[in-house]
Amino acid sequence: MISVTEAQLTDWLSPILWPFFRILAVFTAAPIFSSRAFPVRARIGLAFLIALAAQASLTNQQVIGINSPDAFGAVLQQVGVGLAIGFAVRLVFSVFELAGQVVGFQMGLGFAAFFDPSTSAQSSAMGRFYANIAALMFLAVNAHVVVLMAVIRSFEAFPVDQNFLSALQKMQLHTLGAELFASALWIALPVIGMLMFANLALGIVSRVAPQMNIFSVGFPVTLAVGLLGVAATLSMLDQPFMRLMERVLEIF
Known about the structure:
This protein is mostly helical. It has nine helices and two strands; from the N terminus they run αααββαααααα. It has helices at about 5-30, 40-55, 70-105, 125-140, 145-155, 165-170, 175-210, 215-235, 240-250; strands at about 115, 120-125. A hairpin with a 4-residue loop joins strand 1 and strand 2. The chain is elongated.
């Protein structure tokens, strides 16, 4: 008769269970993975498959029993680190959304807002456009695979234990927010510069020809200049996207 002890079950389940919680937390917070088009059952199955396939590289991990008093702390750490990874990747997409909103506001499209079902919030047209471009680049450069590799490598920097606060201290995600906000302004700066010169030209025209209705002429001009600026800078967005992804993933 085959008998299985609790120690054997712990040795079998512990190396798979804790990576499974961390990967599933990443799928809950990271863009693309957390999309409503990605079914929950598929997320759970894919997270378990990745955790099972990563066992060859996850060596010398601490074995924590499910009935152990340290189990709750281990679950808290895995979920916290996974959510932090997903939130950091989400910040990269927020950079492009913010850049698009700034550009759209300068173009005069600040009123063109609609309800985005993916985020359950109001989103501007240009912000959504830049976010879709970021999503396409995310898939085109296989960044989703790099994120999964970062999750597996994160067990070297943040091994399975109960020290979630120390892991959070090492990440220092609050410093990442300031850098990403500055990056959004740098991405939007070329188009903002073009629109500034267009507004300056419109101001000179309004002074030279006061009889011209500058409000009826200004909106089509700024809209056309803004669209030309977006088209001209669209092919250069891959470099800041790659730098931001590298900056985010090197934390983990």
